[in-house]
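Quick one:
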Amino acid sequence: MRIGIIGAGSIGSLVAGCLASTESDLILYGRGLHAAELMVNGLTLSGIKDDEINGDRWEVIPSEHPLPSTVHSSCEVVIFTGKPSTDMEFLEVGRHLLKPDGIAFSLSNGMGFEEKMVHEFGANRVLSATTTHGAYRPTPGHVEWAGKGELMLGSFMHPYSFEDFQQLLSILNKSGLAPRWVDDGRVALWNKMLLNIAINPVAAVIGKENSALLEPITFDSVVALMLEGVKIARMEGIQLENDEHLVNRLREVLVQTGSNYCSMLQDVRAGRPTEIEILNAEICRRGERLGVPTPLNQLITSLIRQLR
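Output:
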């Protein structure tokens, strides 16, 4: 199976590094010095798994170069792992790589990109996906697998089942990425989204690790942010668990990732664009469409935009 990974950053490189241990044929699309390192020297993977992957293990397409005709319509699967500012570029690359009967999914944070994939490729070629694996890049060509999680796949609009993707799930399982099929992928997307809108922007504003959000007053604010999103999800018809269960899960995640500095805080410190537009700002946009006010998410969105 040929798999294209579009956006070979931290998570994209982790996925590629794990898939390198399988028989899958890999194409990586990335930019800058990191992509150059992947192409010339390969990838150093450390943390949960230590490995040195040779650059010959995959074909790297630098974003600075034209898309080669040799890879046109060559991928059975395309995985998107990029930032929101690269949506249109990545969709064009995906359209170039994906076979007419190929399937696409995104492991990026936030919401809204799945709808764009459906518009681009068709509802029957898009899956819902999320991951709880943690990774960061200490240096170009080096990815630290900082937290072992899982990779969830499920139906987005088209009603697929586990049996439809046994080959893909087998490859992901052999890679060590711990795949799990969920029947309603939209619920999985929202569960990840709700954690992100609660944790990431608050941690970025206060400039502290996740455990700081467990302080009682701060935790109350984090919960309030999340519950605004819960209201929007339920109005969109998403069958979430009850509020108590969602709050308990939020607390558990903060405990489990207590020493972690979230990606939005890392982006703010590095002067990079954040994912606020596909997280809290997306909650605000969906609230506006439904006629539901989202003042807390509007406030935190404004604060993060000021930090950029």
